[in-house]
Amino acid sequence: NDEQFGPLIVVGSGGIYAEILADIQVLLPPFDAATVARAVQKLTMAPALDGNRGMPMVDIDSYCSAAAQLSVLAVEFADLISELDINPLKITNNGCQGLDALVVKKATFRT
């Protein structure tokens, strides 16, 4: 949640790769799956998603769809959610699944 821009969605390789390689793209929600697909193609790790060395190609469309839906949630609940982290997000050849998530509620002040 950026003070100037509001909710932002970060997509990338995650974990140490996002930190060490700075392999991320930042998107301003709401956006559609095609926007996510373009952002993913800009990542250094994008070729790994196409499958290599006998590994199957991952279902990047399911990831793009999930990220687009998350972008709508980020905008709709911007006044309630301070941050939301889904990590790791496992993408296989037949879908994607968040394995762990953290939602931090915004502090509310009562007068």
Basic shape: elongated
Q: Over all CA atoms, what is the radius of gyration?
A: 15 Å
SS strand fraction: 15-25%
Task: Estimate percent helicity.
Answer: 25-40%
Please count the beta strands (DSSP E, at least 2 residues each). 6
Mean pLDDT: 90
Biggest sheet features: 2 strands, antiparallel
Structural class: alpha+beta
Strand order of the largest sheet: 1-2
User: Element order, helices and strands?
Assistant: EHEHHEEEE
Instruction: Report, as a whole number of angstroms, the end-to-end distance.
Output: 24 Å
What keywords describe this structure?
111 residues; alpha+beta; two-stranded antiparallel sheet; two-stranded antiparallel ribbon; 3 helices; 6 strands; 24% strand; elongated
Protein architecture, described:
The protein has helices spanning 15-20, 33-41, 60-76; strands at 9-12, 24-27, 81-86, 89-92, 95-98, 101-105. With 111 residues, the protein is an alpha+beta fold. It has a two-stranded antiparallel ribbon with strand order 1-2. A hairpin with a 2-residue loop joins strand 4 (89-92) and strand 5. The radius of gyration is 15 Å and the shape is elongated. 14% of the residues are buried. The mean pLDDT is 90.
Summarize it:
The protein has 111 residues and is of the alpha+beta class. Helix content is 29%, strand content 24%.
What's the layout of helices and strands?
Layout: E1 9-12, H1 15-20, E2 24-27, H2 33-41, H3 60-76, E3 81-86, E4 89-92, E5 95-98, E6 101-105
Antiparallel strand pairs: 1-2, 3-6, 4-5
